């Protein structure tokens, strides 16, 4: 780091939209403009979703003769004009590259040309870089490759959020902050399914929740540096770009219960919230889910603490997250039948010792009081989540 300026970025988990899950490699300039417009029209921008990130496949298959990245013919007005379009809507603009010779889809990437590309990004008005792990690595370790881009971004005269996409392979939570990262993928790619088949591409929602419970990375997580369980799949299904491109066997869209669990867990984990759906056809249910103020307040709580499990191992799970004025408690049903799940404030991440607690159901807004006992009835694969405040 040349100074402390980049540490002022991403004080809460970044929120926005990314093109990959909906459009995969077919993304065009028109899709990005439509997404920016839709963020405004749907109220998502007002709710806090601010980054518009173009994922893989925006670049031409050849660099210029000096090694600079060039936009593909699907971005006819170029990246500076697209950044302007996004900025004109009070949104921020993101691009993608890879810490290797090529991107995951085989386009030119940034290893060995970090400074040159960081200068391009800054000149175009880029506010966020997602930096993947594909291509030839020239024998270099991940930490070295990611540090090279971190230094390049810190050297340019623009604030750029640095999103490390290393899939959690080399425990990036141990070094992500120190190479200038503001978030780092902790897991493999999330697909639009509850569980993935072990022999197919990616992880399902429940697989990622299991992985986040297993990796013990919560201590690294907080303002300025976030574990990233991957972009949201709410609104996606069999026909989404990623499902088709990666040939994922997606038989049906996620159910409402599965979508609630997906969003509840990402907010409880204080995860970056990057929407991955086509915003021009977002359902009312999904829009209301993604703009639930009570859930977003848990995700964006200023302490930036990652939620962790208090009870696992059977079909009734309890997870909690300390908040500035209390805590959030999630009750998750992994089984096939409705069940009541109960706990007590003394067993979860809520400040103990108060005589009374106020409880608010984050789905319904219903409020009640308790001396400490908490119990919720939960549908299969669903998650009840409450905010608990002493006094
Ligand atoms: C990897 C990343 C994804 C996406 C694709 C693009 O799989 O993990 O998030 O960026 O590459 O090719």
Automatic annotation (TrEMBL):
This is Glycoside hydrolase family 27 protein. It comes from Halonotius roseus. Residues 314-388 form the Alpha galactosidase C-terminal domain. GO terms for biological process: carbohydrate metabolic process. Transmembrane segments: none annotated. Belongs to the glycosyl hydrolase 27 family. Keywords: Glycosidase, Hydrolase, Signal. GO terms for molecular function: hydrolase activity, hydrolyzing O-glycosyl compounds. Coiled coil: none annotated. Residues 224-246 are annotated as: Disordered. The keyword Hydrolase applies.
């Amino acid at each position: 780091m040349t100074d402390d300026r980049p540490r002022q970025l991403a004080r809460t988990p970044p929120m926005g939209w990314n093109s990959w899950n909906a459009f995969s490699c077919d993304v065009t300039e028109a899709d990005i403009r439509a997404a920016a417009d839709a963020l405004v029209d749907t109220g998502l921008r007002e709710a806090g979703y601010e980054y518009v990130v173009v994922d893989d496949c925006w670049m031409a298959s050849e660099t210029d003769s000096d090694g600079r990245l060039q936009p593909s013919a699907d971005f006819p007005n170029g990246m500076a004009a697209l950044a302007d379009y996004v900025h004109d809507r009070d949104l921020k603009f993101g691009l993608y590259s890879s810490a290797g010779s090529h991107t995951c889809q085989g386009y030119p990437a940034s290893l060995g040309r970090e400074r040159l590309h960081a200068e391009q990004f800054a000149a175009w008005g880029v506010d966020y870089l997602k930096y993947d792990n594909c291509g030839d690595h020239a024998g270099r370790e991940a930490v070295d490759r990611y540090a090279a881009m971190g230094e390049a971004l810190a050297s340019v005269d623009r604030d750029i959020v640095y999103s490390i996409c290393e899939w959690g392979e080399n425990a990036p939570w141990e070094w992500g902050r120190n190479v200038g990262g503001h978030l780092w993928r902790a897991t493999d790619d999330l697909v639009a399914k509850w569980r993935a088949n072990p022999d197919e591409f990616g992880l399902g929602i429940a697989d990622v929740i299991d992985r986040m419970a297993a990796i013990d990375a919560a201590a690294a997580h907080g303002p300025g540096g976030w574990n990233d369980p991957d972009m949201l799949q709410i609104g996606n299904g069999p026909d989404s770009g990623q499902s088709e491109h990666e040939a994922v066997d997606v038989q049906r869209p996620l159910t409402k219960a599965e979508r609630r669990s997906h969003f509840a867990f990402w907010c409880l984990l204080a995860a970056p919230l990057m929407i991955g759906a086509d915003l021009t056809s977002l359902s009312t249910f999904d829009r209301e889910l993604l703009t639930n103020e009570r859930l977003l307040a848990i995700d964006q709580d200023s302490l930036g603490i990652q939620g962790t499990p208090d009870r696992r191992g059977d079909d009734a799970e309890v997870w909690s997250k300390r908040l500035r004025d209390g805590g959030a408690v999630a009750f998750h049903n992994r089984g096939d039948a409705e069940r009541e799940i109960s706990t007590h404030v003394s067993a979860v991440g809520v400040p103990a010792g108060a005589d009374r607690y106020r409880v608010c159901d984050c789905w319904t807004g219903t409020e009640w009081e308790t001396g400490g006992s908490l119990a919720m009835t939960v549908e299969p694969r669903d998650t009840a989540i409450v905010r608990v405040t002493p006094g």
